[in-house]
């Protein structure tokens, strides 16, 4: 299993706008082999931002990589820069592989 996360520092006061962007987007994730689930997480508040993370779960790292190279990925991210004013800096990517214990 592979978990892919992007952290966003959303400008204080723009949280509802940021959430609406995610509610109204055309995801395309469900079309991809190996996709399991998506969650948008709201985290702690700082002086100038609220932390959010997009969280996807995949069967494997290879499935996630295939998503990032797919037409569905390009279609889902078209126009993503139009909402850049809602967050501070670029999203920070973090990827995690499941450790079998």
UniProtKB/TrEMBL annotation:
<dbReference type="GO" id="GO:0004497">
    <property type="term" value="F:monooxygenase activity"/>
</dbReference>
<dbReference type="InterPro" id="IPR011008">
    <property type="entry name" value="Dimeric_a/b-barrel"/>
</dbReference>
<dbReference type="InterPro" id="IPR007138">
    <property type="entry name" value="ABM_dom"/>
</dbReference>
<keyword id="KW-0560">Oxidoreductase</keyword>
<feature type="domain" description="ABM">
    <location>
        <begin position="2"/>
        <end position="96"/>
    </location>
</feature>
<dbReference type="Pfam" id="PF03992">
    <property type="entry name" value="ABM"/>
</dbReference>
<dbReference type="InterPro" id="IPR050404">
    <property type="entry name" value="Heme-degrading_MO"/>
</dbReference>
<protein>
    <submittedName>
        <fullName>Antibiotic biosynthesis monooxygenase</fullName>
    </submittedName>
</protein>
<keyword id="KW-0503">Monooxygenase</keyword>
